Amino acid sequence: MTTQTETTSLPRLIRDLNDARRELTRRRGFEETALSPRMREGIRRVFGADLTAEQVVDRILSEVRNEGDAAIRRYSAALDGDTNPEIEAPRSAWKAALASLDPAVQDALRLAAEQIAAFHQKQLRTSWLDYGDEGALGQIIRPLDRVGVYAPGGTAIYPSSLLMTAIPARVAGVGEIVVCSPASQGGQISPLMLAAAEVAGVDRVFRIGGAQAIAAMAFGAQTVPHVDKIYGPGNIFVVLAKQRVFGIVAIDQLPGPTETLLVADDSADPEIVAADLLAQAEHDPMASAILITVSQTLADAVIEELPRQLAPLERADIAAQSLAANGLIVLAPDVETAIDLANRYAPEHLCLLLRDPWSCLPLVRHAGGIFVGEDSPEALGDYTAGPSHVMPTGGTARFSSPIHVADFTKVISVVAANRKAIRRLGPATSTLARAEGLTAHARAIERRLERLNSPDSA
Length: 458
What we know:
Helix content: 40-55%
Oligomer: single chain
Strand content: 15-25%
Number of helices: 19
CATH class of the largest domain: Alpha Beta
CATH superfamily of the largest domain: Nitrogenase molybdenum iron protein domain
Radius of gyration: 26 Å
Shape: globular
CATH architecture of the largest domain: 3-Layer(aba) Sandwich
Number of domains: 3
């Protein structure tokens, strides 16, 4: 039986559908992230005042924009303990880092890279021109010139996120891929991260973390080139910085805490369900691991199983905090209702642990990624399946998508009209322009029509 102590790390059980709908439709995102006592202490130490996260980010952005490398070095030392004066990590360090890894890890990184590249190759779009008797219309697809990837390096190192972002950029044909990742107290980036940079084929890596990294990539500095678009997850300071530089550069998204929602029936194995919930919960205390099931028996079995699997985990404390704060087990009357609840939540990861998951796929409207069946765990998608694991969070899967090749390209429209098009479209164009009060627009068309209708026109 589950003890009273163990219940403090269990997900909350919801039986009432109205309560479930209210809980699952509550908008959540990065702006809800509270500053920890450790963060607040660090702010007081560095800035000498109790600043908000927004005030911290605004100050860092301004100083990096105005001072460049000097501000980057100052904040790297103050916030990350990195006193290494060299901002850029030389390529020789990447190669050495890769060679230093266990051969099995090297092989795993290369396998993941191959899978990611193969998946994204299928997404490539081509330019097109449609020729007709009125000229031609079309689109030109061009890759971005230079992009920036932020790779976090705090309590956990995620070389997989670097692969999942940089490799689609490489497939898209981006001219230059820049990576920023914080260094440790010793002034070095994690060897795993440098190895991932080598495998992914990026162009430059800089030892910069936090809001100062976003500022460096957005504005440029003496050492760091400015980029056209910034990608990658991070803490509250990174996300706020991305939000503030949007418009100067493009950004991929404003990621909040990660989340997984499992829809399961009585065919699901409670050990597998518990394992998948814990795989999500161990990411972060703010992560959300949610089960919606039509089976009371399964719910009870998962509640019994979670403490057994939680105890031996290396990140048990983090997983326990996540389950207690954000975990849910929801009972639904049928699978259709369960998936309707999932659509309301619009999860980053939606896992269908059902007897016939394929029949339910058409019911899914909102999710970053769908994991079909018990043999498709989210953990597989996190590393080696192929699709990027950088997915929309906080309900934004209602309107946004995982990282894909199109995120690294832009579309240029092509208009090549001829006189026949002017004759047919010109009068309506002139009428609409005059209706909007833009008479110069109208006259630009009318002069062409007058020329076409003159006796001297061929």
